[in-house]
Amino acid sequence: MIKPIDQFALVAPLVRAGIGSLTKAVPSRLSRGGLPLITLLTLSSLRADDWPMLGGRPDRNMVSGEVGLPVEWSFGGKTPAKNIKWVAPLGKVTFCAPVISGGRVFIGTDNDVKDHTEQRGVMKCFAESDGKLLWAVTHEKLRNPSEDDGTIGVTSTPCVSGENVYYVSNRAELVCLAARDGKLIWSIDMRATLGVMPNQASSSSPLVVDGRLFVVTGTAADYKTGKVKNPSAPSFLAVDAQTGKVLWQDNSPGARIMTGQWGSPGYGVVEGVAQVAFPGGDGWLYSFAPATGKLLWKFNGKAHEKILPSGEAETLFQFLAAPVFVGDRVYAAIGEPEAGSGAGALRCLDAKQRGDVTKTAEVWRLDGLDFSDSISMPAVHNGLVYAADTPGYLSCLDAVNGKKLWSHDVKSNIWGSPLVADGKVYIQSSEGAVFVFAVGREKKLLVTNTQLPDLQHGTAVAANGVLYITGQNQLFALAAGK
User: CA–CA separation, 397 vs 392, rounded Å?
Assistant: First the structure.
């Protein structure tokens, strides 16, 4: 079974008119889980130091302008608690990262067995000030074995835009809630209305820019047969963020989807032209004009691998993390959904080109012994790229030519992405450690934190002077001097 990440990321658009009828009123399976609603803070406009979506901003670059963040901390026990602002309970297992906007913290998880007789997917909202639960919305589990969401809950890192919060539920529903109280605004059941068939999880993190919502639908190959039962179902979707009306859709991966599609889109403006890039389950990266769905370029991410007579690569590697836009370049890592060690690659692409750019757009590539498979987003800062691969190496590269400057073995897998903030690089390992490095061309490990319980595959994020670390069943808000 996959371990989806942050959140586990196109030829001719099918522009539809009147598809707003696909949206629904409150479905019976959507509830507040019997949890009390607490009076919320007054909604405010997005602050510059909020972190409202995966990667913080539409370009998905994991770089924060926060300062004064803690370098080390202690949860208590044998040593006094240090730099712990608050701790909030999650469910039994948590795979996505928190987002912070308008005085609230949102995160997807599952329910605690003490709360329900059956497992649910849950979206929770906490007060940013003290971690109090403000509301929670629950989703029933799927019952179809071919689309089973297993023992996990909501794995889609949400996106907050305006006064709404958007995510994909464990049932492959694209959901829009009021950020204030969790009230349903609209939802699209992508299985029932678009023919989407997910595989084990629906993990894409929505992206909202200029009133348009972009998402990878998660349609996939059947996990038993390996065949795509509905190749015509869209892989990539653009929706009116206010109404839920489908603006355009694309099914370019079609029958070539290898296993599933768990990635998220990224957005950039290159030479004055906006583009939104989607990672496909066929191992290709596709970029479109956001308003129309016109294909701008596509890149075969498996081009460095051994190609079979059928024209396909012999591995199942694909783009699982969101592509990162910086200037006129796109940085993207390729990996394998079962997260084994193998021939992954980190690429830097020229996003100015058009058409099939597989042979022309690659500025540089790191692969082979230098970089293995990866499900992480890189962070690009001051001419340096910080990137992690699944076997557990954090590497620092020259952003211009891809030359490796240093690397560090964390001695366990890395499921999340590095965060650059306050002159530091934070990276979380799958065995419960958070490593903190100084940014720069020379390696300087500042501290290895092992005090927080039950950490596995999270990604650190920062907002408003607070560092957030996600455990399997707890969310930790860390602040210096607390």
Answer: 16
Are residues 23 and 263 in contact, defined by beta-carbon separation less than 8 angstroms?
A: no
Q: What φ, ψ does residue 63 adopt, rounded to 5°?
A: -125, 130
Q: Is the pLDDT of residue 5 over 80?
A: no
Is residue 342 a contact partner of residue 361, using CB atoms and an 8 Å limit?
no
Q: 3 and 415 in contact (C-beta within 8 Å)?
A: yes
Mean pLDDT in residue range 214-220: 96
The pLDDT assigned to 395 comes to 98
Q: Which amino acid is at 70?
A: P
pLDDT digits (tens, 9 = 90+) for 308-323: 676 666 667 888 899 9
Number of Cβ within a 10 Å radius of residue 359: 9
Q: Looking at this protein, which amino acid is placed at residue 355?
A: G
Sign of the Cα pseudo-torsion (302, 305, 307, 313, in order): negative
Domains and CATH numbers, the chain: 19-478 (2.140.10.10)
Rounded Cα distance between 443 and 395, Å, is 9
The DSSP code sequence of 80-101 is: --BSEEEEEE--S---S--EEE
Please check the confidence at residue 24 and state whether its pLDDT lies above 80: no
Is the separation of the CB atoms in 228 and 257 below 8 Å? Answer: yes
Query: Which residue, 168, 158, 240, is CA-closest to 198?
Result: 168
Between vectors from CA 43 to CA 42 and to CA 44, what angle results, nearest 5°?
A: 115
Expressed in percent and rounded to 5, the helix, strand and coil fractions of the chain are 5, 40, 60
Per-residue model confidence as pLDDT tens digits over 404-435: 999 999 999 999 999 999 999 999 999 989 99
pLDDT mean over 325-350 = 85
Q: What percent of the chain has pLDDT over 90?
A: 70
Residue 86: CB partners within 8 Å, gap ≥ 6? 130, 131, 477
**Interior CA angle at 421 toward 418 and 426, to 5°?**
35
Q: Is residue 311 within 8 Å of 328, Cβ to Cβ?
A: no
Q: How far apart are CA 297 and CA 352, in angstroms?
A: 9
How, if at all, do strands 173-178 and 184-189 pair?
antiparallel
Confidence band (pLDDT; 50, 70, 90) for 342? low
